[in-house]
C-alpha cells in the first residue's frame, strides 16, 4: 500500500475541529449524521440529542487564498424531542438518523431530518432587516396609547444583526412501524422516500397526511423473517429508480414505473460468498450498512463491515471494485461481537468527481480509496494534528508480525473511537469527518 | 469440547445481548435482534454438530450418524439430570442482574448440568398445558397461541435445521425453546402494524416484558 495517494496525490491538511474538548462525552453530543448541502456552502450535523447544527462556509477571501473559507456555526436548533409511544410503552429516541438537503430554490434553505419515527422538513431562513417605525407600537413592542398618535408614518426596513431562523414546515409522522434508517430526496425535487427495517414509503414534500408504501418485505409470518432493509436511496438522475440494501448483503434496484408496489426488484445485486472467508459471523458482517449512488448515477457503492464495494448498475453478479477497509479485523470478529462493535454501521461517500471514495474505521482512522490509481490511504482525525494547514501523516495498522516504527498494532486500536459518518464537499476537496462528538474538517493543501 | 464451550458461551452472550437490547432506549431493534438470532442459530448448530462429533466414536453403526443424537439424548439428559444440584433456581436471577452479566457467562457453563432438571420439570408442565402458563393472560389466547406456535415451531424447525435430525439433538427442548421463544421475540413490539393485526401477533406484545424474562430464564436455565 502506498503511503501517499487518495486522489491524485492530494495532501490532506487539518482545517478545523468543532465540538467539546473533554474526553467525557455527553451522550447527547454524539454526532449521528453529517451532510453537505448541494453547493457545499452549508454543512449540517445531527446528534443523539436531537439537535441539528449547521455550519456555513465563509466567503473566500480572494486576497488571502491560502485556504478556503472556514466553516462557522450558522444555525442550531432542536429538531426532534424524545417521545413516548403509549401503546407500546416505548420511548422514541430523538437521535437524528439522517439529514438530507433539498436543492436551493429561493433565499431559504430546506432540509429533511429524521429520527426513528418522524421526518421533519425544516426551513432555514435569514433575517437581516427589520421593520421600524410602527405607528401603534413602540420600538420595544409595547403598544402606544392611541391618543398620543398625532402623525402617520410608513414603517421602513432597517438593517439588523443577521438572525438565522429555523422553522419546521412539515412534519411527516405515523407512517413507520419500525425504525427509520434512510431518507432520500428524489431528483424530481417533489417527492422523497423513507425506509425502515421492513418498508419503504414514498412521500410528497407538500403532503404530510399520507404516504405511499412502495416496498414491503414484511413476511406474513414474522417467524419467517430472514432479512431487513438497511438503507435506501433514489437514483440521482432517474426519478423512477431507487435502490435498497439488505442485511443479507444484497441490493435491489426498483423501478417505480413497473408497478405500484416495488416488492419485485428490477435488478438484484449480489456477490456470491467466498467460501474461504466463511466464518461464524459471516452472515452478520455481510450486512450492508450504507448504499450511495455515484454523482454520475452509473455506479453505486455499498459498505459492509469489512469492505467497500463499487457496483456497476449494469452488472448484477458481482461488484466491479472491492476495497478492504480493515481486513485485519476478520480474525477478531468474536471479540468485536462481544464488545458490540460488529454491529457498527459505517457510512461511505464519494468525492465530487466520483474518483475517490471514503469511509471510516476505528481508532479515529478513516480511509480513502482512489479508484483510478488504486491507491489507498489511512488518516487519523485527532486533536494532536490541530494546527491549521498541518499535513496529515498517513497511518498504518500492523496486522501481524513485526510492527514497524509508526505502525499501530491491531490490539492497540481504540474501538471506542470510531468514525461512522463522513461527508465530502460536492465540488471541492473538503471533507467533514465525525468522531464520537467532534467534527473535523480537512482540506487539501492549496499552494 | 472447546468448540462446544465456545458455542455455549456465544449462545449465552447472545441471549444476554438480546435481553439488554430490550432495555435500551428506542425499544427493540429489529435488525439487531435478527443479527443476534442468526449468531444464536449458528452457535447452536455448531454446538449440536460438535456434540454429534463427540458422540461419533461411541456409535458402532457407521451410517447411522443422523440418528445418533436420537439414540443418545435420553441417556444424556438423564446423566445431566443426575448431576443436577438442588439449587437449580440460582442461575435464573443471574442474567437479570446486568451488573453481573459477565459472571453469568462464566457460570453458565458451570451451572450447565444443574438446570436440566429444572427445565425438565417446567417442560412437562408447559407441554401438558399446551402453552406457556406464565406468558399469556387468558385461556382463549393460550389456545390460539398453542396452535400458532405448533405450526410455527415446526415451520421454523424445517427452516432452521438443514438436517432435521439435528433438531432432535442432545438438548431437544433447548432447541425447541430457542426456536419458539426467539421467533416469538421477533413478534414482540413493534408487533402491531397500523393495519389490523392478527390476534395472535398482538398477544406477545401484550406482555412483552414478561415473555422476555421467561424466555431468557428458560433459555439460559436450559443450558
From TrEMBL, chain A:
Q: What domain of life is recorded for the organism?
A: Eukaryota
The Gene Ontology CC terms held by the record are: protein phosphatase type 2A complex
Keyword annotations for this protein, in alphabetical order, are: Repeat, WD repeat
Q: Which SMART domains match?
A: WD40
**Any idea which GO molecular function terms this record carries?**
protein phosphatase regulator activity
Which family does the record assign?
Answer: Belongs to the phosphatase 2A regulatory subunit B family.
Q: What is this protein called?
A: Serine/threonine-protein phosphatase 2A 55 kDa regulatory subunit B
Q: Which organism is it from?
A: Macaca mulatta (Rhesus macaque)
* Gene from which this protein is expressed: PPP2R2A
Automatic annotation (TrEMBL), chain B:
UniProt-annotated stretches for the region Disordered? 59-171
**Basic and acidic residues bias spans:** 69-78
Annotated Pfam families: IER (PF05760)
Q: Where is the composition biased (Low complexity)?
A: 125-138
Q: Which domain of life is it from?
A: Eukaryota
Xref: InterPro entries: IER
Per the record, the similarity remark reads: Belongs to the IER family.
Q: Which PANTHER family match?
A: IMMEDIATE EARLY RESPONSE GENE
In its UniProt entry, what is this protein called?
Answer: Immediate early response gene 2 protein
Organism listed in the record: Macaca mulatta (Rhesus macaque)
Name the gene that codes for it: IER2
Amino acid at each position: 500500500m502506498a503511503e501517499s495517494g487518495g486522489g491524485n496525490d492530494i495532501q490532506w491538511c487539518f482545517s478545523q475541529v468543532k465540538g467539546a474538548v473533554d474526553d467525557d462525552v455527553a451522550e447527547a453530543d454524539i454526532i449521528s449524521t453529517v451532510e453537505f448541502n448541494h453547493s457545499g456552502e452549508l454543512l449540517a450535523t445531527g446528534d443523539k440529542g436531537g439537535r441539528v447544527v449547521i455550519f456555513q462556509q465563509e466567503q473566500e477571501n480572494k486576497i488571502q487564498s491560502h485556504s478556503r473559507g472556514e466553516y462557522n456555526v450558522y444555525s442550531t436548533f432542536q429538531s426532534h424531542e424524545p417521545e413516548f409511544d403509549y401503546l407500546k410503552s416505548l420511548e422514541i429516541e430523538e437521535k437524528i438518523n439522517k439529514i438530507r438537503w433539498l436543492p436551493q430554490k429561493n433565499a431559504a434553505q430546506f432540509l429533511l431530518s429524521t429520527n426513528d419515527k418522524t421526518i421533519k422538513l425544516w426551513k432555514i431562513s435569514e433575517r437581516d432587516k427589520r421593520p421600524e417605525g410602527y405607528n401603534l407600537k413602540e420600538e420595544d413592542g409595547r403598544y402606544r396609547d392611541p391618543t398620543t398618535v398625532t402623525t402617520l408614518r410608513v414603517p421602513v426596513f432597517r438593517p439588523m444583526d443577521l438572525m438565522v431562523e429555523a422553522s419546521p414546515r412539515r412534519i411527516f409522522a405515523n407512517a413507520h412501524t419500525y425504525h427509520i434508517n434512510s431518507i432520500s430526496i428524489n431528483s424530481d425535487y417533489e417527492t422523497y422516500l423513507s425506509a425502515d427495517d421492513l418498508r419503504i414509503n414514498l412521500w410528497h414534500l407538500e403532503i404530510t397526511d399520507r404516504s405511499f408504501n412502495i416496498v414491503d418485505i414484511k413476511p406474513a409470518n414474522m417467524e419467517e423473517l430472514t432479512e431487513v432493509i438497511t438503507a435506501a436511496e433514489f437514483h440521482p438522475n432517474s426519478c423512477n429508480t431507487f435502490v435498497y440494501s439488505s442485511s443479507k448483503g444484497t441490493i435491489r434496484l426498483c423501478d417505480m414505473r413497473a408497478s405500484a408496489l416495488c416488492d419485485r426488484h428490477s435488478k438484484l445485486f449480489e456477490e456470491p460468498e467466498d467460501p474461504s472467508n466463511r466464518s461464524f459471523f459471516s452472515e452478520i458482517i455481510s450486512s450492508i450498512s450504507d448504499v450511495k449512488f455515484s454523482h454520475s448515477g452509473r455506479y453505486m457503492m455499498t459498505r459492509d463491515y469489512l469492505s467497500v464495494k463499487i457496483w456497476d448498475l449494469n452488472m448484477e453478479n458481482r461488484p466491479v471494485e472491492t476495497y478492504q477497509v480493515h481486513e485485519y479485523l476478520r480474525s477478531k470478529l468474536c471479540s468485536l461481537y462481544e464488545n458490540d462493535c460488529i454491529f457498527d454501521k459505517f457510512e461511505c461517500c464519494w468525492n465530487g468527481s466520483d474518483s475517490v471514495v471514503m469511509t471510516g474505521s476505528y481508532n479515529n482512522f478513516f480511509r480513502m480509496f482512489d479508484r483510478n490509481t488504486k491507491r489507498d490511504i489511512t488518516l487519523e482525525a485527532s486533536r494532536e494534528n490541530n494546527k491549521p494547514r498541518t499535513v496529515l501523516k498517513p497511518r498504518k495498522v500492523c496486522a501481524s508480525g513485526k510492527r514497524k516504527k509508526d505502525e499501530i498494532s491491531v490490539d492497540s486500536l481504540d474501538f471506542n473511537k470510531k468514525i461512522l459518518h463522513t461527508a465530502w464537499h460536492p465540488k471541492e476537496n473538503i471533507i467533514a469527518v465525525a468522531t464520537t462528538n467532534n467534527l473535523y474538517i480537512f482540506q487539501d493543501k492549496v499552494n | 469440547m472447546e468448540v462446544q464451550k465456545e458455542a455455549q458461551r456465544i449462545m449465552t452472550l447472545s441471549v444476554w445481548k438480546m435481553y439488554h437490547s430490550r432495555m435500551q432506549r428506542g425499544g427493540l431493534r429489529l435488525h439487531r435482534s435478527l443479527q443476534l438470532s442468526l449468531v444464536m442459530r449458528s452457535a447452536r448448530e455448531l454446538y449440536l454438530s460438535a456434540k454429534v462429533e463427540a458422540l461419533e466414536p461411541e456409535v458402532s453403526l457407521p451410517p447411522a450418524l443422523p440418528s445418533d443424537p436420537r439414540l443418545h439424548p435420553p441417556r444424556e439428559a438423564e446423566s445431566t439430570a443426575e448431576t443436577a444440584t438442588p439449587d437449580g433456581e440460582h442461575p435464573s436471577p443471574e442474567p437479570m442482574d446486568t451488573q453481573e452479566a459477565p459472571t453469568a457467562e462464566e457460570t453458565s457453563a458451570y451451572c450447565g448440568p444443574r438446570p436440566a432438571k429444572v427445565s425438565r420439570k417446567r417442560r412437562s408442565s408447559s407441554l401438558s398445558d399446551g402453552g406457556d402458563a406464565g406468558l399469556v393472560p387468558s385461556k382463549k389466547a393460550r389456545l390460539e397461541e398453542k396452535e400458532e406456535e405448533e405450526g410455527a415451531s415446526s415451520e421454523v424447525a424445517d427452516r432452521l435445521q438443514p438436517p432435521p435430525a439435528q433438531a432432535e439433538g442432545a438438548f431437544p427442548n433447548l432447541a425447541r425453546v430457542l426456536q419458539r421463544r426467539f421467533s416469538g421475540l421477533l413478534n414482540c413490539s413493534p408487533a402491531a402494524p397500523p393495519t389490523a393485526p392478527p390476534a395472535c401477533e398482538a398477544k406477545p406484545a401484550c406482555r412483552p416484558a414478561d415473555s422476555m424474562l421467561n424466555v431468557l430464564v428458560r433459555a439460559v436455565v436450559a443450558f
